[in-house]
Amino acid sequence: MKTYLKEALAAFAATLMIPAAAMAQDSMTLKLGTFLPSTHFGVTQGTNVFMEELSKLTDGKVEVEFYPAEQAGKAKQLLELVRVGAIDIAEIGTGYVSSDDIPLLGVLEVPGIVEKVCDGTHASRTVGDPGGVVYENAYKPLGIRVLSYYVYSPYGPAGSRLPVESVEALEGMKLRNAGGLMELTVAALGGVPMKLTSPQVLTGLQRGTVDSYLGAYLSVEAYEYYLYAKYGATGFSMGTPGIFAVMSESKYQSLPEDVRNALDEAGMMAEENFCAYSDANEVRAIEELQSEHGMEIHTWTPEQVELLREKTASVAEEWVASLEARGIPAEQTLADFQAALGD
């Protein structure tokens, strides 16, 4: 990490951190940072639920100071900020870390395997909690623990400036993706991978520097991409990245047992609320984007779905081979993840 970033992190830690010893024994405040705006459904249906339940479970003993919209740091810095103790809890976009820091999170981006958000959430917790293959080989070495797994609805060309009525229409399109494995998916479909953060996409669509947002329709609605993107397609998952709320393991272990238990329970309650909301409201978002904002959203035909599967079949194989060559257990991760989807 560059010197200036180290200095920035140290300065931020100095201004935000309150040593636990300085707090009254019967109360404490935890600092939570996310890159999402406070109005995003990820916050209203996930983060807010976590904070409310944590307060209830601890009888108000534990409160959360919330820093939305990158107030605590840029999206790509949040993992490092929580690791060095600048903030206590960070919500990290899995696509921002699946290329380098946590490559095993690429399992969320394998095309064609996750159809329901709650299934993907359950599978993520199975492989990511202590004892799971991702925890033991990624989170534990990094010194982090996931409190909530917020998996998004299946991604696709959800906000496009150009009509998407055939698989061939994706060829040559500049497709904003979440990074990591999804770049391979875009390339396999003949598209041009564009890596932008969610807040940057609206400007990209407006200026035409990106042709389509590859994501969920709930996000098209939340970020108002429909202002410049009038087309889309649905019916095939091109990956299901998400946002995970993480805490450093050292911070987690420093807390009293009752607080740790409350964090665990609040985290699970929040992710369950989020996944139920997402599964129920993705369809609603598609319907309202068409009826209220004039979008034309194509449903892939069975023949087109089969063609999409054929074109992207090599993505998982390539991902597994590349990580296994580096001694990273991608094959076991994919197998365990898929097995958990069927539980």
Automatic annotation (TrEMBL):
Pfam families found in the cross-reference section: DctP (PF03480)
Any one biological process term the GO annotation gives: transmembrane transport
Entries under InterPro entries matching the protein: DctP_fam, TRAP_DctP_sf
Record's subcellular location: Periplasm
Cellular component, GO annotation: periplasmic space
Taxonomy, superkingdom: Bacteria
Keywords (A to Z) from UniProt: Periplasm, Plasmid, Signal
Main location class: periplasm
Extent of the signal sequence: 1-24
NCBIfam families per UniProt: TRAP_S1 (NF037995)
PANTHER family recorded: BLL6794 PROTEIN, PTHR33376
Protein name according to UniProt: TRAP-type C4-dicarboxylate transport system, periplasmic component
Organism, scientific name: Salipiger abyssi
